[in-house]
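Q: How do we represent a protein-ligand complex in a form that can be generated cell by cell?
A: Start from the inputs.
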Amino acid sequence: MIDRSSEREGSTHFGYSEVPLSEKQGLVDDVFHKVARRYDIMNDLMSGGMHRLWKDSFVGKVNARGRRDFRHLDVAGGTGDIAFRIAAAAAHDAEIIVLDINGEMLEVGKDRAKERGLSGVEFVQANAESLPFPDAHFDSYTIAFGIRNVPRIEVALSEAHRVLKPGGRFLCLEFSHVAVPGLDKLYEAYSFNVIPTIGKFVAGDSEPYRYLVESIRKFPSAEEFER
Ligand code: SAM
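Then emit the C-alpha cells for the protein with S-adenosylmethionine bound:
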C-alpha cells in the first residue's frame, strides 16, 4: 500500500525531507529553475543516452502514428522531449500540448521547437493538479519523469481522468526500484555519488540532483503506483 498518512497530516516528501504539503511545489520549482538550461545535456550524461530509448519506447505506446483529429497532452513536459516525438509520429493536424508548471523549462522547449522547425506543438504553463482544459478533450495523456514531483498525485491523476476522452490513454513513465540483487547496490552507489557529482561539474550545483535521486527512492514501486 502507498503510505499516505503524512499527506493526510498536511506534509509530504521532498526527497528525503518531510515538508509541509503547501511548500513542496515551490521547492520543486526551484530545482527545475536551477537545472532548466542544462536539463537536456544532464539527461544524456546521467543515463548514458538511455533516456532517449526509454522515451522512444514509451511514445510508441501512445499509438499516435498517422492519426487524424488527434489531441495529445504531455504533462510535466519540460523541454518537450516526449511531445516532439509524438509530433513526429502524428498527422500534421494533430493538437499536441506540452504543459509544465515551470516557465523556464518551457522556454528551453520553445527554443528547441524553433530549432527543429516544429510549429504544431503548443506550450502551456499550468499545474498538473488543475488542468486548464475541458472534460473529455484529449485522446491521450503522458507524464514522463513528472508525477513524482507533483505534490498531490491523486489530484493530478483525477485531472488526467477528467480531461481524457472515454477510452483515452493515460501513460506514465517513471523510475522505479531495482529488484536485481547486486545491481541495486551498484545503482545506489551510482545514483548517490556519481549523479550529484556530474551535476556539480556540468550544472554547477549538486543539490538539485540529490533531490532527483532521493525522489526516485521515495516513489512507490510500479505495482503500488498502479494500484
Ligand atoms: N517530461 C520531461 C522529460 O521527460 O524530459 C521533463 C521531466 S522533469 C524531470 C519534471 C518536470 O515536471 C519539470 O519540468 C517540472 O517543472 C514539472 N513539474 C513539477 N511539478 C509540476 C506540476 N505540479 N505540474 C506540472 N508540471 C510540474
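The first helix runs from residue 5 to 8. The first strand starts at residue 11 and ends at 14.
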